[in-house]
Please model this.
Amino acid sequence: MLLIGGIGAALAVMFALVYLHVVLAQRQIELDRMSSAAVARQNQYQALRLKVAQLESPQQIITTAEGKLGMRQPASATYVSPPAGSTAVSNSGASTTSAKGSSTSTAGHPISSPGTVVAPAGDADWPRIKAALAGGP
Amino acid sequence: MIMAFGAIVARVFWIQGPGSGRYLAVGQSEWTHTVTLAGMRGSILDANGNELAMSIPQTTIYADPHQVSDPKGEAAQLAPILGQTVPAMLSKLTEGAGFVYLARTVGDATAAKVAKLNLAGIYSLQEPKRFYPAGQLAQPIIGLVGADGNALGGLESKYNSILQGQPGKLIEQTDPQGRQLPGGLQQYQAPVSGQDLVLTIHDSLQYDAEQALARAIVAAQAKSGIALLMDTKTGDILADANLTMPGPGIPSTTPSVPINIPAPSTGSSPAQTPTSQPQPVEAPSASSFTQVYEPGSVNKLITISAALQEGVIKPSDVFTIPNGYPVAGTILHDAEPHPTEHWTVTDILANSSNIGTAQIAQRLGKTDLLKYIADYGEGQKTAIGFPGESRGLLPTYWSGTTLADVAFGQGIAVTAIQMLAAYNAIANGGVYVAPRLVAGTIDSKGVEHPTPVVPGHRVVSKTVAAQMTTMLDEVVRVGTGTAASLTPYTVAGKTGTAQVPLNGGYEIGHFVASFAGFVPSEDPAITAMVVINDTPDYGAAASAPTFATIARDALQELKIPPLAPLPPAPGVPLSTNQAATGAGEVAGTPLPGLSAAATAAAVVPPSTSTLPSPSTSSNLAATPSQAG
Model:
């Protein structure tokens, strides 16, 4: 009786070990699959990032503007003077102009000043993305 | 029998027990692999965060020839996909090594085709590849990275240590197919990505500058050119174009930023079509930093501002300017013959008179002239420290004519960036601001680190800077620089025309034509410089219109409004000139998109032009003259 019990217990342990190995193998396969998918997604993101950068390059924009959209450089620029007392606000900052068209304040034109560094265009959360793009196991 | 059995048992006991270490080590070396994880190289970004250079993982195909079962068959399948010949592929697949590159950093489509073949002994790995999304835009500045990740010149080289990442390591136990063993050993050391480099350059302004410069080089039949654009207040370089015509060592097949050059037959038509004529390509190096040239008349800014600062002249002083002026036994001439004139300092600058400048230099003296040359940054590298940057050349021997020569930009050699910074000092109210090319870095955690600002220093007083600005306004209003006018903006600037050195002398009819200036002169926001190298044209015709083009584009892009003109600086007389004298010296081709004034100034109808050509206008018998 004791012998039978011992054999049974041994078999149970053996089957449990086999089962654990099977589960381990299954999980490893799943891990490999997910890891491959993660790498594929990262590569896809990088490829798209490159494509966006290429599409945003000046040459590409000019080619599209002139070739596809038929846009042309203006022969000359017309400068419009706003009415007296009005205030023009640009995207990058305020610029107040007088009736004669002269600027009384040129502060805020979009030239970057020392002490400012701009992250890659279009990637608002670049710090998080850049850290995630580092190579992984 | 018993003894043999006992020996076997003993051997088994030894192998499984005390002696197992050796065999265990051999086994582990078979299934344990160390993979080096490349730290991704940082990107190079323009001032707006647009990528100019970036590294992307690409698939590299390699083989373990020991595992290749059918070299001929696999070579026949792989060769067309990887764009190689079958014999070459077969040679790789039959090498004695256990690792052979078949094709590095191939595209995703190619990698997928190879994977689909599922060939024995053929594997892939990921390697970073450097891409330049804007093509060759600003390539002399950015530099290159080779296939092995080695930086080849430019900022890629200078900042290689911070751009390149730190590699990581992965130790894992795998099966023969490279799959990780379940529950196997794994040690991971994360790689560190390189830092991103953020430049002060704006890619769109860089593009505009390269396009305008390329047109100017072709129109002026020049060999090369430089166009620089700087933020007056900060010293940030917004654009730095360096182009050259194809020649020895620079094949015409080098890909370049495609340039739309007006076809000759289109005349004034705004439509532009690419022509079949040779087009400028990116220079092999950043000539604005590495190449020196005799600045010619643009250097008169230093002489005259120094004399004003030292109080040896006043703007209203009148000088007698003969047609020929003796200096140490040599007769100096201006670019064009003229009767004896009585010119103010403003007139001397507006007419770009060598004789007038020489007289001013004689009042100033060598010691003070050298002091201001140094204060303006000539003869020394900029704070940028660009790879291969030149200090420029100052005279080592001063003859009787050297003072006069240096005063109007001869016998001295500068880089374009030095001269740009000198003009920027006047634009900045007399304060020299160190040029800046790198705004900062972004580290692997995304933290931004701005580049420390190099403190500037005062060169001349605010009053002298204002006086110089008024005079430079006059150069563009009625002097040699009218082709740089940009109505309704007020442009302050100066033309320069130096002769090309050749075998200890000068090459007749070959000029370095330049224009340096700033705009709007009432409150300068942009300082720019254009250098057209080895052209038969003067600076007024070859460079000033290009200055106008790139300055106009920058003013529009940066949304800088025109300002109400300021009255002349107190005590500074306006020029007595009634018409431009320099801009019409050379018949040129109208460049597209210029103001009517600039276009008219750049063109002289051949039938009405009575002025000599540049190659004959200068009296070169004694000391070669510099023309404005």
